[in-house]
Amino acid sequence: MPWLYFTLKPRHRAWAEAWQKEVQDRLRELETVEIAEGCFISPEAHLFAEPGRPIRIVGPGVSIAANTFVHGPVVLEAGVSLNARVSLDGGAAGIHIGEGSRIATGATLYAFDHGLAPDRSVRSQPVTSRGIVLGKDVWVGANAGITDGVRLGDHSVVGMGAVVTRDVPPWAIVAGVPARVIGDRRDRRRSGAPDPSWPPSDDSGD
């Protein structure tokens, strides 16, 4: 439960930060990993970043929960959350996840694909990679899948179990297999609760 780490009371903060330093230093020794200050990585997370396929955690507040699988090249911006059993494989072109985006349990993002030519076996098909890009403040629901070459616009939402095979516009809500647009976040009722990080600093409109 990595969110608990960021809400620790001061009396627990010292030992927790020292523990996380040990976990993160061990990853830096073993893998080509860059980790910003103020992040949480479960010791049960599986990060693989050989030379040429780095994992770059470039901002604070990133959390990576237990039993995640992350294979570079991957870039995670500030505040990104990878929940339990999330699977990311950057292929050759990589995965880039923007600030504040949330990836729910069991979601899969694979930035590569195999050929389907009928004159050769599946195992001998060529592999291609175009990359995956998620904008900021994106929410990917539990057990959703994102295929290679897809770009998700800022503030978009992917429903639980959806399979996204094409680009998603900013603010769109998509669901289904294959995923299609079913709504727009800007049409939803406002929560009324204050949020110091809102409105977004870009010019994406309201």
TrEMBL record:
Residues 184-206 are annotated as: Disordered. Keywords: Acyltransferase, Repeat, Transferase. The keyword Plastid does not apply. Pfam families: Hexapep_2. It comes from the Bacteria. SUPFAM superfamilies: Trimeric LpxA-like enzymes. CDD domains: LbH_MAT_like (cd04647). InterPro entries: Hexapep, Hexapep_transf_CS, Hexapeptide_acetyltransf, Trimer_LpxA-like_sf. The keyword Transferase applies. GO terms for molecular function: acyltransferase activity. PROSITE patterns: HEXAPEP_TRANSFERASES (PS00101). PANTHER family: ACETYLTRANSFERASE C18B11.09C-RELATED (PTHR23416:SF23), SIALIC ACID SYNTHASE-RELATED (PTHR23416). Belongs to the transferase hexapeptide repeat family. This is Acyltransferase. It comes from Archangium minus.
